[in-house]
């Protein structure tokens, strides 16, 4: 299952109004069938996250001279991590996201072990959830790394000042 999310549309999903540089806004990831859809809302139209939202965050439209990107909140990243476990063929992306979560100190690497069929498995602990995860080590090739980076950027990056 591929998720194709766009960056901020710079328009409020509720009012259609254009969001301007420096303006704060809210974003929500909403499951629509098998798709994750990003919706952006101006502060005035934000009534809280939609009932079907799997994650939300507050951002700010960058000023034209600013070109800095920020990750979505850790809870959103953890939700995507969980969802990737349910998607066959996406083990490499889940492994890369796990490494990112370790780098961000959301999880910590506890040990490495051998799983079924002698496959290397990374054992991670998430203090936020008081949970341990076993993530198969699936190192993607260079071309796949670029694909994974693009997809994670679409899913998990937010502009902020």
Describe the structure.
The chain is of the alpha+beta class and 161 residues long. The protein has a domain at 74-144. The chain contains three helices and eight strands. It has helices at 74-85, 91-103, 142-156; strands spanning 24-32, 35-42, 53-60, 69-71, 108-114, 120-126, 131-136, 157-159. The strands form three sheets. A three-stranded antiparallel sheet has the order 2-1-3. Strand 5 and strand 6 (120-126) form a beta hairpin. Helix 1 packs antiparallel against helix 2 (91-103).
* General shape: elongated
Cα(first) to Cα(last) distance is 32 Å
Taken as a percent bin, the fraction of beta residues is 25-35%
Structural class category: alpha+beta
**Order of strands in the sheet with most strands:** 2-1-3
Flag low-confidence runs: none
Mean pLDDT: 86
Order of helices and strands: EEEEHHEEEHE
The biggest sheet, with number of strands, parallel, antiparallel or mixed sense and barrel status, is: 3 strands, antiparallel
The DSSP helix count reads: 3
What level of helicity do the residues show?
10-25%
Total beta-strand segments: 8
Give the radius of gyration.
17 Å
Keyword list:
161 residues; alpha+beta; three-stranded antiparallel β-sheet; 25% helix; 32% strand; elongated
Write a concise synopsis of the structure shown.
By secondary structure, the protein is of the alpha+beta class. 25% of the residues lie in helices and 32% in strands.
